[in-house]
Write a structure and sequence with these properties.
InterPro entries: Beta-grasp_dom_sf, Mopterin_synth/thiamin_S_b, Thi_S, ThiS/MoaD-like
Protein name: Sulfur carrier protein ThiS
Strand content: 25-35%
Radius of gyration: 12 Å
Structural class: mainly beta
Order of helices and strands: EEHEEE
Oligomer: single chain
Strand order of the largest sheet: 2-1-5-3-4
Distance between the termini: 39 Å
Number of helices: 1
Largest sheet: 5 strands, mixed
C-alpha cells in the first residue's frame, strides 16, 4: 500500500485503519495530531478511520521541554 506520510511516499503493508498505521510505527501511545487528506482525525476515531491506497497523512507528535 502506497501512502504519503509527512510529505514522503512510503510503501507499507496493507493496513485497514489509522490505528493500525500508528501501531506499525510504534506511535500508538504518543500524543498526536493526525491529518488524513487535509482533515483532522479525532483521536477517538483512529480505530474506525479507514486508510486507502494513495492517502496523504500528516502525523505530528508533541515533545515536552522547557
Amino acid at each position: 500500500m502506497l501512502l504519503t506520510i509527512n510529505g514522503e511516499e512510503r510503501e507499507v503493508e496493507q493496513l485497514s485503519t489509522v490505528a493500525e498505521l500508528l501501531t506499525l510505527f510504534k506511535l500508538e501511545q504518543k500524543i498526536l495530531v493526525i491529518e488524513l487528506n487535509r482533515d483532522i482525525v479525532d483521536r477517538d476515531a483512529y480505530a474506525n478511520t479507514p486508510l486507502q491506497e494513495g492517502d496523504k497523512l500528516e502525523i505530528v507528535h508533541f515533545v515536552g521541554g522547557g
